[in-house]
Write a structure and sequence with these properties.
The complex is a heterodimer. By secondary structure, chain A is mainly alpha-helical. Chain A is 68% helix and 5% strand. By secondary structure, chain B is mainly α. Classes of the chains: A mainly alpha, B mainly alpha.
């Protein structure tokens, strides 16, 4: 950020907010790979999550203390959630869906923890919501649909999977095939659109009324919307997997 | 009218998709409250169906947003 914040017009502010900057370029074997700020933020979130899971699971005891109790309750919640919605075999996917859920919560809520500029102070690095980058949500959607595809193939056996394509009647074949394209597209766009929309609205509020309103509106647009969208993404992934393995 | 201003008007029109999503989510929430009031013990299943429903209803508004963004930053 070169210009001070108050000198920017609203549209400049928003354009700057939703543009994804290249932080540095990695040179490996004559390849130059641009590393965007989303990737750097993802690394930070990943590092925090890995460190947290190491520290939290390091010393498990028979009589749990508070962190272990909270962790057990949270993991139990995820397991119950998946078992309830994806049926008996669903528990094989609890770890996968739980990972997506935890990462999305962290990705949507991480920007609330970074300092914001103002009064001549500019933070060195600001974490913006990771899911405002369509590449992140597309990666998650592709991961989910690949899992759905192979889960169907493994749990129904290849023949059963082929049969499921022509259920309930052979006319449905093109639609059943189309689902494999529509499901990831809608998963990806829903998360991206929601987070980006909330982010743009927050930028607008911060530009128009920078004093009292942003924290209040942020409770809804950052905290509530981020949590709800993480839940919705995990829930829809669970439903798709449940459909595939039934 | 040049292409740029037409695109901006189009972006504004695209955001009207929010109407349908708001209506749909409102309807779904109302019915969910009714259903939970009638059968509180089934609230888990009702909430599941509700989440799925609002996620699908909301998709139209999101497509509107995406179209608007495409029109502005084409």
């Amino acid at each position: 950020m070169s210009a001070p914040e108050h000198a920017m017009s609203i549209s400049e502010r928003i354009t700057q907010g939703i543009s994804i900057k290249t932080v540095f370029t990695l040179h490996i074997f004559n390849l130059s790979i641009p590393i965007s700020d989303t990737v750097v933020s993802t690394w930070i979130v990943m590092a925090v999550l890995i460190l947290a899971s190491y520290l939290l699971t390091r010393r498990f005891r028979e009589t749990p203390k508070k962190p272990q109790l909270l962790l057990e309750a949270f993991i139990g919640f995820i397991n119950d959630f998946v078992k309830e919605n994806a049926g008996h075999h669903g528990k094989d996917f609890a770890a996968f869906l739980g990972t997506i859920f935890i990462f999305l919560i962290a990705a949507n809520l991480a920007p609330m923890l970074t300092p914001i500029g103002g009064f001549g102070f500019e933070p060195a690095f600001v974490i913006k919501p990771l899911t405002r980058d369509i590449n992140v949500t597309a990666a998650f959607a592709i991961t989910v649909i690949v899992t759905v595809f192979f889960a169907g193939l493994i749990y129904k056996r290849p023949l059963g999977w082929l049969k499921s394509l022509v259920q309930p009647s052979p006319i449905m074949l093109p639609f059943n095939l189309l689902e494999y394209a529509i499901k990831p597209l809608s998963l990806c766009l829903r998360l991206f659109g929601n987070i980006l929309g909330a982010y743009i609205i927050m930028q607008l509020i911060e530009a128009v009324a920078p004093v009292i309103f942003p924290p209040v509106a942020g409770l809804y647009f950052d905290l509530f919307d981020g949590l709800i969208q993480a839940v919705v993404f995990a829930f829809l992934s669970t439903i798709y997997i449940a459909e595939a393995i039934e | 009218m040049d292409v740029q201003s037409a695109a901006l008007i189009g972006a504004g029109v695209a955001v009207l998709t929010g109407l349908g999503a708001g209506f749909g989510i409102g309807l779904a929430t109302g019915k969910t409250s009714e259903a939970i009031a009638r059968q509180p013990e089934a609230s888990g299943k009702i909430q599941g169906a509700f989440l799925l429903g609002i996620a699908l209803a909301e998709a139209t508004a999101i497509y509107g947003l995406v179209v608007a963004l495409l029109l502005i930053f084409k």
